[in-house]
Amino acid sequence: MSTFSGLNAATTALWAQRRALDVTGQNIANVNTEGYSRQRVDLQAIGGSTIPAFYSTSPGIGAGVSADDVQRIRDAFLEGRGHTEHANSARLLVEADTLEQVETAFREPGDTGIQSLLSEMWDGWEDLHNSPDTDAARTQVIERLETLVGGLQFSSASLEAQWKQTRENLDVLVKDVNAAAATVAELNKAIRVANQAGLPANDLSDKRDVLVMKLADQVGATVRPGQYGTLDVVVGGMALVSGSNSYELAVAGPIDPDLITATDKPRIVTASGNYPVAAGGTGGGQLSALNVLIPNYRTQLDGIAKGLADSLNAAHATGFDLAGNPGGDVLGSLSGPITAASISVVISDPKLIAASSVGPTAGVPALDNGNADKIAQLRQQVTGTDATYRKMIVELGVQAAVAIRNQDIQAVITTQVDAARESVAGVNLDEEMTNMLSYQHAYSAAGRMITAIDQTLDTLINRTGLVGR
Known about the structure:
This protein is an alpha+beta fold and 469 residues long. The chain is built from nine helices and ten strands. It has helices spanning 5-29, 76-106, 114-130, 135-196, 202-219, 281-317, 370-376, 385-425, 429-463, and strands at 39-45, 65-72, 222-225, 231-235, 238-242, 245-246, 249-252, 267-270, 331-333, 343-345. Residues 99-329 form the Flagellar hook-associated protein FlgK helical domain.
């Protein structure tokens, strides 16, 4: 072993501990940086020669320390779990928010809710039963019908506006996903080039992981490792990013809720080939709102409007107005079939209200109040409009409560997974301070070792072999 080999070992120690200190400083500087993963210098002992030779032997002591590799501390399994839980949390959050907005559209419970408007309308018929011969009682029936119809139309318009807003949000989301996927592909390319050249790419990997987590939130993206540190991003079994190539998504389907059919619904597809993509995350929640949640309550509301019109018109037809004529339709449609959006009051003359259940005698109309009472009693029907509406509101309340509860549970799970991820990849200042002191003392020791070797060599070179003094 060379006399000067100790200097080389001490020099590698100085360089390794200095680099370890640099990395520790980088960790401390980025303690609050989003997506930053703590780094560690991989210290490896430089061993003796492993190739035997007749005139080349190793004493087995080694030649110092190597600190060429700086590792990024990350747990791939926890990252994958994080992608899954973030996607589930984002989807449940959208569904819970959707149901809360649907509840707002019906304004229940409250004085402006449809249930209250129904009660006031039936009360109007009760008042007409008490005073069938007054124009005031007849007029207030029409006014309360107008108010009820306005409430139905408002709720329908609110649901339609919510659907269209969600559809627009989905378009914006997909555009954002395409931009993020293109950036991930560019980072993959840079990371691959850096790794092939033996250069560090930890900061690039951190930026990429932040974007991948964003894609998991947006569309439920997952990853699979590729060559030279690259990652492939997959959404619903379809590749969104493959190496340095990215593929765009698009939104297909109608932009009007009235145009939805069993075979043509809003959906996320590949921009090339138009293949359906089973998205999760926020996109999956928005698709659920567009195709299931909002259309379900729009359909039920339309059924309630149609049922109200049918029952009211049928009962009104059995009575007679002030002129002794059979009652006509009270509720109809502005255009097409009767829905919550198109329902309207088609009677405007109070004298046409068929409050009497007795026809004219010898051409003289009767002022009986039986039909008004009959109509007022429709509110008591087990399968009537009121019962159907109350059942829908109860179901909506239960569904919203379950959705909010599921979202709260998922939020706890996601928080726990994030905490586990942070415990591995996050910067702990106490740990970094401990490492800094350790590297500092090691650096000082290596410097002291060089001083000792220098003094030894000085004695060997300058003071050994002096004769006669």
